[in-house]
Input
Amino acid sequence: MATLFNKNLQQRCFLQSHHSFGRLKNSVNTFIDDSFVSKVHAFIEWNDRYWLLRDVSSNGVWLNGHKLGRDQVAQLNIGDVINFASKSTNPFEVVDTK
Output
């Protein structure tokens, strides 16, 4: 199980094999309280080999300061920083990929 660290809340986020992020509290695995975050903003999925990040939002996802294209997939590695809706807010750091 991979783990992210939410730098704003100083909390760990343990990923499920198909994990959703967004502001639709009862429909996502990890709630992000930010009006610029989409109801369902992004997914992280385990593909039996790697953890993959997919942006499904209207306001974007940044990985290590680079904006992903909508529906673009990126492999996650330890130390990566994910930002939702802005490259300077909602930082989550990948701390474990096992």
Notes: The first strand starts at residue 3 and ends at 6. The chain has a mean pLDDT of 94. The radius of gyration is 12 Å. The CA atoms of residues 50 and 62 lie 18 Å apart.
